Amino acid sequence: MRRVIFFHNNISRIATNPEDFLSRFNSYLQVAKNSLGDAPLDLNLLLGRIHTDTRFDEIKVVRLSNSLLSQYLTLRFLLKGYGDEVTLIAGDNHLSLLICRLAKARDTNIKLQISIHASVSALLNPTSIAEKLKLKFLLLNIKFIDSIRVVSKSDLENLKKEITNYKGQIFVAPVPIEIPNTALDRKLSNIVGMVGRLHSERGIKECPAIFKDLKVARPESKIMLIGDGPERAWLESQLGGFEPKPEFTGSLTQSDIREQWPKIHVLLSCAPFESYGMALREALVNGVFVVARKNETTELLQAQFPTVMRVFISTSEAAVFINGFFEQVFSPDMVLAVRQAIKSEQDKYLTQLAKSWFV
């Protein structure tokens, strides 16, 4: 039996809420079973600071204490108790990776895997001291890692250029999104939305200029911001004089966000870097037009869906694109085509993830 252990010393640090996180791993497990046939698989999640009552029958969840020493000893004990081969997945690429490395020691039956969910371009060009130290730590530990999961083909190529002597496996497997199967009947709307963390690295500083230009062209336009973060107070002050008053929802669960998509006509993303563009794809499968800052990921996505997505270089251009989409309706046929394309792509990537656990 192949045993897979995911270890994260502090799950509260990730953006995804615990219920959605566990549901995601359950979907991974189901894909693994469907694609790998009768190959026996035992999935274990060792999680620090997790607070949820959500359970899945086929997933074992071990709630870790806050003590790093206790976490290490628990992981080491479980790894020693397994006679079969184990795939050990580090939940982050600093403290969790360090604990996994120490617990694995020199055991060749334990294959260590990491995931890079951020844009590799952004990762390799850190701006803060903390980011530089984390990158240095990751690069020093690369030789001890057996496989690396990234979320896009461009990330894979950029990483290969950086770690030319790496002997392990690098593969693409983005975080899956839920693809609706209900028919949509979209109507004209004047609501532009943003979904994600309100953080400077997401290009938040550009938003007021875009919204001001949009208000000149279409005074009745409305703004909805889904998410929270350190730039929320600043953004609220910048948009304080807008009418209608912008709606700040704060952080929402995935199920709550799904309920908001029918209200939004255009999604705006100002992020200078995108890894996979999860929110962009979620918008498209829900019949929401997308206007996003030009970068490697958004250019590829626009090439795939040119009639429902535009990329911008300047803030004035973004406002023009948003206003243009306010005049259009996302057709049912286009929604169906987008869903089929993204599902096909997603199924292929999830199968790759499942297979990586058996390498």
Q: What do these coordinates show?
A:
The two termini are 13 Å apart. α7 crosses α12. The mean pLDDT is 93. The radius of gyration is 21 Å and the shape is globular. The chain has helices at residues 18-36, 68-81, 95-104, 120-123, 129-141, 153-162, 207-217, 232-238, 254-260, 278-285, 296-304, 315-325, 332-356, and strands at 2-8, 41-48, 59-64, 86-90, 110-116, 147-150, 169-172, 191-195, 222-226, 247-250, 266-269, 289-293, 309-312. The protein has 13 helices and 13 strands. With 359 residues, it is of the alpha/beta class. The strands form 2 sheets. Strands 3-2-1-4-5-6-7 form a 7-stranded parallel sheet, with helices on both faces. A 6-stranded parallel sheet has the order 10-9-8-11-12-13, sandwiched between helices.
Any descriptors?
single chain; 359 residues; alpha/beta; 7-stranded parallel sheet; 6-stranded parallel sheet; 13 helices; 13 strands
Average of pLDDT: 93
Total strands: 13
How many angstroms separate the termini?
Answer: 13 Å
Low-confidence stretches: none
Q: Strand fraction band?
A: 15-25%
What structural category arises from helix and sheet content? alpha/beta
Q: Report Rg.
A: 21 Å
The best one-word shape is globular
> Biggest β-sheet: count, sense, barrel?
7 strands, parallel
How would you classify the quaternary structure? single chain
What spatial order of strands do you see in the largest sheet?
3-2-1-4-5-6-7
The DSSP helix count reads 13
Short description:
By secondary structure, the protein is an alpha/beta fold.
